[in-house]
Amino acid sequence: MANERIILGIDPGTTIMGFGLIKVVNKKMEFVQLNELILNKYDDHYMKLKVIFERTIELIETHHPDEIAIEAPFFGKNVQSMLKLGRAQGVAMAAGLSRQIPITEYEPKKIKMAITGNGNATKEQVAKMLQQLLGLKELPKNLDSTDGLAAAVCHFFNSGKVVGTKSYSGWDAFVKQNSPLTPKGGNSLSIDVPNKRKK
Which of 60, 120, 153, 157 is the most buried if burial means most Cβ atoms within 10 Å? Predict the structure, then answer.
């Protein structure tokens, strides 16, 4: 029986959110899907977060990914934009964590480096390399979906390596790594996490 796993890559955004899926069969990756969620038609920021959560859950329930790779927000000068982007990422992560799917964050430069060998590559360069790697016939008009796909491919390339990224296997792991109230070696909040999720 072939060893298979599905990786969902997410590029968080509050205007456009990119998603990409690959299947790994016997250590070879195959393209499954790339898509984008257009959010600028919603005026209310909280409605955008609701839509991000629901769409991520829908992708999870349709494709049953074994792992999620998500692009970490980059640090910019506009604090409000960073806050909104962080919320979008958090909502997508919450969707995955609610289904007990392991999540790994990658810095944008790490993703670009993994795909092109250049941490300062443009979106277009990343998209073109993905097109070659996965045999894509054409590229989408907006490259946010290829950024999501790039996160998934980056995760495939880094599987089994220690790459200095953050990984979470569920709510319990997320709380342990992110709660400022948690003493070292201890856990201030206990959450029962089932080992297996239903597919």
Answer: 153
Q: What is the value of pTM for the model shown?
A: 0.79
Q: How many CB atoms lie within 10 A of CB 153?
A: 25
Q: Which of 36, 67, 71, 107 is catalytic?
A: 71
Indicate the DSSP class of residue 184: T
Catalytic residue among 36, 67, 105, 144: 144
43 assigned to active site: no
- pLDDT tens track for 28-77: 999 999 999 999 999 999 999 999 999 999 999 999 999 999 999 876 67
192 catalytic residue (yes or no): no
Which residue is catalytic, options 11, 36, 105, 147? 11
Q: How confident is the model at residue 82 (pLDDT cuts 50, 70, 90)?
A: confident
Structural domains present in the chain = 4-178 (3.30.420.10)
